[in-house]
Structure formats: structure tokens, C-alpha cells
């Protein structure tokens, strides 16, 4: 008990210090973020962009799809360009042409090589010189650069408008015509794109060759190349990671682990009778399966848009389901179904652990279910409606699609979801309270489950921290609090504690051992994970020390994954501990798959892009998608399915259980995911990385690369993996449907028998 108390103390200290540092970093980002000018003017007095156009342009881009329609500073989708990189390259070319035309040539390409070299050197000086005046809040451009900016602005006005000459380019970008129908939005959009590119190339005050985004994106024309810090901290992070892994292996080798207990002769949960609230969670799991089916369908459509742009095998699907909507649903449903599976698991196990059914608990579980269903349906429907009918900025922010990846639902739905999560924590706490009060070996595990649940409910409040006019750097800061800390942090702690609790209830792990192990694992995970959040913020207008902190702590995130194979092997042994354990075989194998994908998806593919020097060249390319698919579904998705199967086991007639369908489901899902990642996404990411390194980020995201024969072939190579994966999802759906139909048949048969026993008084 004393050792466990010390571990709890260490956990509290580490969390307090880590969040203090993360909060301080946020303050520094707020103070040093790229300034938003009141005006952009030429040195001749011409107004290029007027007061308020930069923030209005940001709102317009987000309402048009935002991070589902290309990216800014590398965060977003991959078919359309990164607009900051695209603007920077187009403006550089336009300025060179302006200078060439002043010297009597029609374009820069017609100049002699020596003269071209002279103008390129002049371009670097022009683009990197910071002409922002803080006292007036104005950026002043030379007359020539102002002319180039206005030319580029016209391109984006035509692209996001209705210009028929750009229809082919829109198709390549998977954009619909008339993306921004409002005049003021359409003309403000270039101001935001200009500002994002200006921040990416202009030197910070008092610095030389160091932009607000630490020289991201790579653009050789303006000397946007990696900083020395990006290289140094990458090397340092790798050294730290190797040393930490060695230390963990050494600690593991000298630690004497207590062996697993002798398993009970029979299933301890065989006679568990589900309470009314436990039975009420069944519908959650069927909604989970429905969301998986919808997510996979939207993923297929979204991937296909990378080839046809507007159509699905010739059918003009984009007229009713644009790329921005299909990708929003695909990413949003991924988080929603995983979260729903974990929330339902918590509600299911609470009465089972405490042996107590609180009053009105079933009513609360049902109310929460219909509230969550309303949020899912409402946010999806209004997001689709707002995008299709161009309802505008206010509609998009409040009840439509905010345009932010993984947290796209409108603010009203976010508030309702936050309230729903707090209600879930209340229901969970009511169910666990008797077990928390009663001294037992499992109380530490139960406390960890409840604390993680409180963090899940509380930390969703970070989705409410930004407003429609918040600085883009701060939006990204708070968004990654939600995506990284909420999804990748506290949900993982919650699920890991739940799994340990389930194993102890089955008698496969000593409760005392599990207590210490979970706290220690949480310490190791959060020590790197909390400040590791900053590896998402290297190039989003943050101070340079963010690169140092993010690189070092994100490297530590990999450390606990190195021994994940040991835990997976132990779980495999537990699956064979006794004949009755086979009843939970596929749940346990899902937990083993989590270990595999943690190593491959989160570990290998994650660390391949997490160092500053790697992410500098690969941010916003398909290597990010490869890591995202392998980690999100492979780790969190398989974890959710494993928990779903465990709960359905206790809620279903065991005679209706089909191991054959689950076997097919398990292998098809994992094989399909592996095919998708390694036959398509990884090769595409490597191909784009080469383009980024050699010519610049603009080129890696250009139609010339995205729609090259090689890249489109790789998109088609997703089809075999998608088919195999989809077959696995269908097997899961058929399995669940079989349980549902079989249950109804059993109930019908029982009712018929009861009628047959009643004598006919007629």
C-alpha cells in the first residue's frame, strides 16, 4: 500500500508539472504568435487588404470546409493543396514575373540565367524582410510585391468562385464550384492565405532566416529550409529515446514480476445477471456498429475523390455529398464510435463491479443514449446542410461544420456533448461509488477508471476555448489539447484501466499487481504524452522552444511501446489459461492486436514523422495518414471492438455466440488495415516526401504529384485492402445482427410456450 501511495503521488506531481508547462507554453504562443495586421498596404499607399479581412478570410475558409479542404500550416486534408505553401510559391513566381515585365520580358523564364539568379536573390530579401509595424498594426509591401499579391488573390477568388476556366483544377482539388458564394467572404479569403504565407516566410522580429513558423513550409525559392534547431533537437530526441528504452528494459529485467494467479476452474462472470441499466447499454453497441459501417462507407467515397474529384465511378456524387462532407463524417465518426464503445463499457461494468444498481440508473443510461444519438444525427445533418447550401460563417461555427479536423461539429453540439459527458461521469460515479467506498485490492483500479472518466468529461471543455475570431495559432493549440490529450491520452488511460479491471474480475491477474502496474504505466505514458502534445505544434506560429520540448517528450511517448509485445504475449498466454477463457478469446485477441498496432502504428509510423526534421518535410503528406489509420483504428478501434465484444458476451445468449464470424472479423480487419496502410498510404507518403525534399511542400501537394499516374495507382491499390477491411466490418455487423435476431426468436418462443400452457377457458 505504501508503494502504491508513492506512485499516486508521483502521478499527481508529474501531471501538475506537465500541465503547468503546457499552460505556460500556451501563454507564450498567445504573446508571440504571428501578428494579424489591421491593413496590408503598398508603399505607394494602395490598400491591398483592408481592416478585418484576415480574420474574416479565416472564418470563410473554415466555413468552406477548412481543414477538410486542403490545409494551412500542414494541418488538414491531403487532396487540395496546403494553401500557405501554395500561396507562397505562387506569390514568389508572380513577383519574379512582375520584375521581368518591368524589364521588357513577358515572364521570368525568358531572362538569361545570370539575370534570373540576380532576381532570385532579390526575391529572398524581399520575401523575408519583415515590414510589419506594431505601432500602426500595418504590413507595408513594395509596389511590385503588392501587384504580385493582387494577381495571386485573383486566382483564389476565381478558384473558390465560379470561374469556368478553373473547373479542371477544382476537380483535381475535389472542390465544388461556388465554394464561397458571398462576395465579402470570397474577397477576404486571399487575405487569410496571404497572411499564413507571410507568417511562413517573413523573419521574426530580431531574427535572421527564421520565420514565425520556423521556416515551414519548405520553399527553396525564399530560403525556407529547416532551422538548425530542427536538426539538433531531432538528433537529441532520438538519443533520449534510445537511452530511455535501455533504461526501461533494464528496469524490466531486474524487476521481479509476480506471476499470474491460478485461474478459477469456472468463469467468475458466468452467473453474472445483468442489471436493467447494464441491459440498457446493449443499444449503444449496435449504434457503434452502425457508425463503423457509415465511417467505412464514407472512407471509401473520400478515398475515391482523390482520383475522380467530383464523381464516384462516373456518378456526380459531389453535388449531394461533397468531399468536405464525406471526409468530415469519416473522421468525426471514427472518434464518435470509439468513444461511444468506451462510454458504454463504463456504464456496463459499473454495476457489475460494485454489485449495486443505483436508483433510476437505467433511466439515466437511456436518456444519455438518446441525447448522444441526437447530437450525432443533428451535428451530421446540419454540417451537411451548411456545407451543401453555403449557409455562411455564423451557421458553420454554431450549428454546422466548424472546418476543424476531428472536432468539426458546431459549437451548440459541442456544448451539448460536453453536458452529456458530464452526465456520463455522474452515472459512472453513481455506479462505482459503493466499490470506491469499500476497501479492497481493486479499489486503486476502480479509482483510476473513475479519475480517467472525470478527465474525459472535463477535458472536452477544451473544445469550447476558441471562438469564431480566435487567432489560428491558438485554435491549433487548443484543438490538439482535445485531439491528443482527450482522445490519445485520457481515453487510453481509461480503457487500459478497464481492461486491467476486467482481467482481475476474471481472476487472470492479481488485483494488487494490476493496481501498481496501471499507475506506473499511466505515469510513464503521461510523462511523455502531456508535453508530447507539442509535436503537433512545431510549425503553427509557435516559439522555437516548442520544437525542443515537443521533440524530447514525444520521443518519450515511444518508450512504453517498446515492451508492448511482452504484454501482448502475456495476454495471449492468459487467453489459454483455462478452457472457459475461450469464451473471451476474441476480446483478448483484440487487446493483443492493440499491442501490435501500438508498436507499428503509434510507435514505428508515429515516430517516423514525429521528429522535427522528419515532420518538416512530411507534415500534411500521406505518411501522416498512414500513421493516423494504423494508430486510430489499429489501437483505439480494436480496443473499442474488444470492449464491445466483452460486454455483448455478458448481454447475450451464449448459445447464439459465433466464434467463426468473430474469427473472420478479426483477421479481415487486421489484414485489411495492414494492406491499406502498407500497400497504399506508406508508399504514397514516401513518394510525396521525396517531392517535398527535392522541390518543396507546394510540389508535394500539387496536382502534378497528387494526380500523377503513380499516386493514382496507389489510390487504386487501396481497393483490395478496403474490400478486405469492409468484409471484416460486415462480419461484425452480421454477428451482432445474429445475436439480436436470435434473442428475439428466443423471446418469441418463450412467449408462445407461455400461451400454450394457459388453458382455454372457452
UniProtKB/TrEMBL annotation:
<dbReference type="InterPro" id="IPR000883">
    <property type="entry name" value="Cyt_C_Oxase_1"/>
</dbReference>
<protein>
    <submittedName>
        <fullName>Nitric-oxide reductase large subunit</fullName>
    </submittedName>
</protein>
<feature type="transmembrane region" description="Helical">
    <location>
        <begin position="586"/>
        <end position="609"/>
    </location>
</feature>
<feature type="domain" description="Nitric oxide reductase subunit B cytochrome c-like">
    <location>
        <begin position="37"/>
        <end position="218"/>
    </location>
</feature>
<keyword id="KW-1133">Transmembrane helix</keyword>
<feature type="transmembrane region" description="Helical">
    <location>
        <begin position="445"/>
        <end position="466"/>
    </location>
</feature>
<feature type="transmembrane region" description="Helical">
    <location>
        <begin position="629"/>
        <end position="652"/>
    </location>
</feature>
<feature type="transmembrane region" description="Helical">
    <location>
        <begin position="723"/>
        <end position="741"/>
    </location>
</feature>
<feature type="transmembrane region" description="Helical">
    <location>
        <begin position="230"/>
        <end position="251"/>
    </location>
</feature>
<dbReference type="Pfam" id="PF00115">
    <property type="entry name" value="COX1"/>
</dbReference>
<keyword id="KW-0812">Transmembrane</keyword>
<dbReference type="Pfam" id="PF22085">
    <property type="entry name" value="NorB_cytochrome_c-like"/>
</dbReference>
<keyword id="KW-0472">Membrane</keyword>
<feature type="transmembrane region" description="Helical">
    <location>
        <begin position="516"/>
        <end position="539"/>
    </location>
</feature>
<feature type="transmembrane region" description="Helical">
    <location>
        <begin position="664"/>
        <end position="687"/>
    </location>
</feature>
<feature type="transmembrane region" description="Helical">
    <location>
        <begin position="412"/>
        <end position="433"/>
    </location>
</feature>
<feature type="transmembrane region" description="Helical">
    <location>
        <begin position="334"/>
        <end position="353"/>
    </location>
</feature>
<feature type="transmembrane region" description="Helical">
    <location>
        <begin position="545"/>
        <end position="566"/>
    </location>
</feature>
<feature type="transmembrane region" description="Helical">
    <location>
        <begin position="478"/>
        <end position="504"/>
    </location>
</feature>
<feature type="transmembrane region" description="Helical">
    <location>
        <begin position="365"/>
        <end position="385"/>
    </location>
</feature>
<feature type="transmembrane region" description="Helical">
    <location>
        <begin position="284"/>
        <end position="307"/>
    </location>
</feature>
<dbReference type="InterPro" id="IPR054309">
    <property type="entry name" value="NorB_cytochrome_c-like"/>
</dbReference>
<dbReference type="InterPro" id="IPR036927">
    <property type="entry name" value="Cyt_c_oxase-like_su1_sf"/>
</dbReference>
Amino acid at each position: 500500500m505504501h508503494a502504491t501511495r508513492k506512485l499516486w503521488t508521483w502521478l499527481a506531481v508529474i501531471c501538475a508539472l506537465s500541465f503547468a508547462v503546457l499552460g505556460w507554453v500556451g501563454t507564450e504562443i498567445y504573446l508571440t504568435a504571428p501578428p494579424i495586421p489591421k491593413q496590408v498596404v503598398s508603399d505607394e499607399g494602395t490598400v491591398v487588404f483592408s481592416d478585418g479581412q484576415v480574420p474574416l478570410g479565416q472564418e470563410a475558409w473554415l466555413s468552406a470546409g477548412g481543414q477538410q479542404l486542403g490545409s494551412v500550416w500542414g494541418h488538414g486534408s491531403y487532396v487540395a493543396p496546403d494553401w500557405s505553401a501554395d500561396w507562397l510559391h505562387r506569390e514568389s513566381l508572380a513577383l519574379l514575373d512582375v520584375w521581368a515585365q518591368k524589364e521588357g520580358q513577358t515572364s521570368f523564364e525568358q531572362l538569361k540565367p545570370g539575370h534570373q539568379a540576380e532576381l532570385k536573390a532579390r526575391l529572398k530579401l524581399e520575401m523575408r524582410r519583415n515590414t510589419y509595424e506594431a505601432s500602426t498594426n500595418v504590413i507595408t509591401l513594395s509596389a511590385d510585391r503588392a501587384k504580385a499579391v493582387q494577381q495571386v488573390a485573383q486566382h483564389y477568388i476565381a478558384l473558390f468562385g465560379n470561374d469556368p476556366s478553373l473547373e479542371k483544377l477544382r476537380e483535381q482539388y475535389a472542390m465544388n464550384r461556388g465554394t464561397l458564394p458571398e462576395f465579402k467572404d470570397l474577397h477576404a479569403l486571399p487575405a487569410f492565405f496571404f497572411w499564413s504565407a507571410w507568417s511562413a516566410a517573413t523573419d521574426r522580429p530580431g531574427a535572421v532566416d527564421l520565420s514565425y513558423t520556423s521556416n515551414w513550409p519548405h520553399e527553396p525559392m525564399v530560403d525556407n529550409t529547416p532551422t538548425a534547431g530542427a536538426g539538433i533537437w531531432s538528433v537529441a530526441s532520438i538519443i533520449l529515446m534510445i537511452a530511455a528504452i535501455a533504461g526501461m528494459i533494464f528496469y524490466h529485467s531486474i524487476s521481479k514480476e509476480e506471476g499470474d494467479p491460478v485461474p478459477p476452474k469456472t468463469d467468475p462472470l458466468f452467473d453474472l445477471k445483468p442489471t436493467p441499466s447494464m441491459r440498457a447499454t446493449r443499444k449503444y453497441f449496435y449504434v457503434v456498429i452502425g457508425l463503423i459501417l457509415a465511417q467505412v462507407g464514407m472512407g471509401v467515397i473520400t478515398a475515391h475523390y482523390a482520383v475522380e474529384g467530383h464523381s464516384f465511378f462516373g456518378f456526380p456524387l459531389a453535388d449531394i455529398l461533397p468531399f468536405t462532407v464525406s471526409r468530415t463524417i469519416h473522421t468525426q465518426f471514427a472518434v464518435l464510435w470509439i468513444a461511444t464503445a468506451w462510454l458504454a463499457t463504463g456504464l456496463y461494468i459499473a454495476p457489475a463491479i460494485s454489485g449495486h444498481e443505483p436508483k433510476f440508473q437505467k433511466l439515466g443510461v437511456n436518456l444519455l443514449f438518446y441525447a448522444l444519438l441526437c447530437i450525432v444525427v443533428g451535428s451530421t445533418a446540419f454540417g451537411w446542410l451548411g456545407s451543401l447550401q453555403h449557409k455562411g460563417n455564423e451557421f458553420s461555427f454554431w450549428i454546422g461544420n466548424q472546418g476543424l479536423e476531428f472536432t468539426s461539429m458546431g459549437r451548440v453540439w459541442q456544448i451539448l456533448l460536453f453536458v452529456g459527458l458530464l452526465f456520463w461521469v455522474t452515472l459512472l460515479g453513481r455506479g462505482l461509488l459503493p466499490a470506491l467506498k469499500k476497501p479492497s485490492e481493486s479499489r486503486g483500479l476502480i479509482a483510476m477508471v473513475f479519475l480517467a472518466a472525470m478527465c474525459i468529461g472535463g477535458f472536452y471543455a477544451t473544445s469550447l476555448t476558441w471562438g469564431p475570431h480566435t487567432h489560428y495559432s491558438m485554435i491549433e493549440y487548443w484543438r490538439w489539447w482535445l485531439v491528443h490529450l482527450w482522445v490519445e491520452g485520457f481515453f487510453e488511460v481509461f480503457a487500459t484501466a478497464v481492461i486491467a479491471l476486467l482481467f482481475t474480475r476474471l481472476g487472470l491477474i492479481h488485483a494488487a499487481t494490476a493496481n501498481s502496474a496501471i499507475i506506473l504505466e499511466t505515469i510513464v505514458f503521461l510523462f511523455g504524452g502531456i508535453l508530447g502534445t507539442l509535436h503537433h505544434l512545431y510549425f503553427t506560429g509557435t516559439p522555437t522552444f516548442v520544437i525542443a520540448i515537443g521533440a524530447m517528450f514525444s520521443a518519450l511517448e515511444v518508450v512504453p511501446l517498446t515492451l508492448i509485445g511482452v504484454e501482448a504475449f502475456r495476454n495471449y498466454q492468459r487467453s489459454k489459461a483455462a478452457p472457459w477463457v475461450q469464451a473471451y478469446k476474441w476480446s483478448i485477441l483484440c487487446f493483443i492486436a492493440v499491442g501490435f498496432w501500438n508498436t507499428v502504428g503509434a510507435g514505428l509510423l508515429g515516430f517516423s514523422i514525429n521528429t522535427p526534421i522528419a515532420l518538416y518535410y512530411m507534415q500534411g503528406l500521406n505518411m501522416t495518414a498512414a500513421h493516423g489509420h494504423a494508430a486510430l483504428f489499429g489501437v483505439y478501434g480494436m480496443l473499442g471492438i474488444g470492449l464491445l465484444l466483452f460486454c455483448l458476451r455478458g448481454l447475450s445468449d451464449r448459445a447464439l455466440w459465433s466464434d467463426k464470424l468473430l474469427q473472420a472479423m478479426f483477421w479481415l480487419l487486421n489484414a485489411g488495415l495492414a494492406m491499406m496502410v502498407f500497400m497504399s498510404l506508406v508508399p504514397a507518403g514516401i513518394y510525396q516526401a521525396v517531392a517535398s525534399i527535392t522541390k518543396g511542400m507546394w510540389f508535394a501537394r500539387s496536382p502534378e504529384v497528387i494526380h500523377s499516374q503513380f499516386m493514382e495507382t496507389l489510390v487504386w491499390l487501396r481497393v483490395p485492402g478496403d474490400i478486405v477491411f469492409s468484409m471484416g466490418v460486415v462480419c461484425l455487423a452480421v454477428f451482432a445482427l445474429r445475436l439480436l435476431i436470435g434473442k428475439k426468436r428466443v423471446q418469441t418462443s418463450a412467449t408462445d410456450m407461455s400461451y400454450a400452457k394457459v388453458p382455454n377457458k372457452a
